[in-house]
Amino acid sequence: MHMKKVVVLGGGESGVGAALLAQAKGFDVFLSDKGKLTDAYRTTLQQATIEFEEEKHTESRILDADEVIKSPGIPGSVPLIKALRAQGTPVISEIEFAARYTDARLIGITGSNGKTTTSLLAYHLLKTAGFNVGLAGNIGDSFAEQVLNQSFDYYVLELSSFQLDDLYDTHLDVRVLLNITPDHLDRYNYDFQQYVDSKFRILQNARPDDTFIYFDGSQPVTDQLARQTYPLRQLPVRLDGDLSGEGGYALNGQSTARTGAHVFTIAQADTPLRGPHNAINMLAAVLVAQAVGADNNAIAEGLRTFQNAAHRLEPVGTVNGVQFINDSKATNVDSVFYALSSMDTPTVWIAGGQDKGNDYSQLDELVGQHVKALICLGVDNQKLVAHFGGRVPVIYETQQITDAVAKGLSLAEPGETVLLSPACASFDLFRNYLDRGDQFRTAVARLADTVVTP
């Protein structure tokens, strides 16, 4: 009997997890990574006696597969993937593969911005409420490896558009779509509608008793919904007042979520989440918790004890009364829009890096309201300087994070804020946004040690 051949492309967290699960299910598994594997993942594969290659793709071997599990980081447009699809070989994501082997209820969360916060919060609310729940997808440990080694009843899955692109038969019980703004257009032929369609794959295989939670203030979302009806329970989230039916709304600092007879209300000030975008994220997560049956006390307790992800509006220290905030995960303009709208003091804004075709004009009003100085931290700051030259009183350029932090302190008064919210990718000066945020945190800590408080 021919053992089904599965090839895993990409040897990161999702790929190695998928390889382990495929092996356990009796497949002939081969993992191939064009780059170098980390020592930890290499050791895991060796210990499991899974065959692998690194720093190359042996095409003949890959094209011989019965099914290919592809890392979300590999675009569908690369010749190898096109060749696989042309010959009819299924190319799927780790999420799709792992979902076949679990009966757990799946909660899928997507959106251009806010999905990490909403996923972490939904997971925390369910855990606090006593649910046996896992967290996977674009965050945390591999979904496939958890399906292999854990027995969770629920999974919260953070899903990027790239992961959704390789989902076909997976059924999600609860689906969350926070917003859609232009991002990653280089992966979608610079066609915004293709990106919108990708996000709407969150609604594939919908059943009438599924729940769909979405932000009813995101134009592309509401436009797309208006064009098509989906057969499931819809719970909109709004920022502008009451809802006659079910869903969530925020008004005057109060957030209310309603599903059926279940109504939950909390003041945003009683939670660790700041800014209007986090009111949306919070309401979406609360509606998820309600949809699977968490009670009000558990939800309130979970909101009080929640700690958001690192690098996402993360306070990293106060020096001489100046607060430093690390928002290194803000790699697009829309994320910065959220960050600046959360500022309630005059702000020194540190931005820059590898520009992804940014349009900074949507920030003009907020920059005018909040930003007293702009520090450009990048190899090429031309675009930022050209756009904000006449709009921000002080602009300073540097390629050193320590210099940026020290300059931030000198430009800010006690009670003001220095915000790292780059709007750009980090690869010009840093390994990734985590490295950028970590170096920022370290620089602030060192600065605090050297500054003598007057």
Topology:
Layout lengths: L4 E5 L3 H12 L3 E6 L5 H9 L3 E4 L4 H5 L3 E4 L8 H8 L4 E2 L1 H6 L5 E6 L4 H14 L4 E5 L5 H7 L4 E5 L2 H5 L8 E4 L14 H8 L11 E5 L3 H9 L5 E6 L8 E5 L2 E6 L2 E6 L8 H16 L4 H10 L8 E6 L2 E5 L6 H9 L5 E5 L12 H7 E7 L4 H7 L5 E5 L2 H11 L5 E4 L12 H18 L4
Parallel strand pairs: 1-2, 1-4, 2-3, 4-5, 6-8, 6-9, 7-8, 9-10, 10-11, 11-12, 16-20, 17-18, 17-20, 18-19
Antiparallel strand pairs: 12-13, 13-14, 15-16
Subcellular location: Cytoplasm
EC number: 6.3.2.9
Pathway: Cell wall biogenesis; peptidoglycan biosynthesis
Largest sheet: 9 strands, mixed
**Strand elements, count:** 20
Task: Assign an overall shape.
Answer: globular
What's the rounded overall pLDDT mean?
A: 92
Q: Which regions contain 5 or more consecutive residues with pLDDT less than 50?
A: none
Q: How would you portray this structure in words?
A:
This is UDP-N-acetylmuramoylalanine--D-glutamate ligase. Residues 109-289 form the Mur ligase central domain. The protein has 454 residues and is of the alpha/beta class. The chain folds into 3 domains: 5-92, 3-Layer(aba) Sandwich (Rossmann fold); 96-305, 3-Layer(aba) Sandwich (UDP-N-acetylmuramoyl-L-alanine:D-glutamate ligase); 314-450, Protein-Tyrosine Phosphatase, Chain A. The chain contains 17 helices and 20 strands. The protein has helices at 13-24, 39-47, 59-63, 79-86, 94-99, 115-128, 143-149, 161-165, 192-199, 219-227, 276-291, 296-305, 333-341, 364-370, 382-388, 401-411, 433-450, and strands at residues 5-9, 28-33, 51-54, 67-70, 91-92, 105-110, 133-137, 154-158, 174-177, 211-215, 233-238, 247-251, 254-259, 262-267, 314-319, 322-326, 347-351, 371-377, 394-398, 417-420. The strands form 3 sheets. The chain has a 9-stranded mixed β-sheet with strand order 7-8-6-9-10-11-12-13-14, with helices on one face. The chain has a 6-stranded mixed β-sheet with strand order 15-16-20-17-18-19, with helices on both faces. Strand 4, helix 4 and strand 5 form a beta-alpha-beta unit. Helix 1 (13-24) runs parallel beside helix 7 (143-149), helix 6 crosses helix 11 and helix 16 (401-411) packs across helix 17 (433-450).
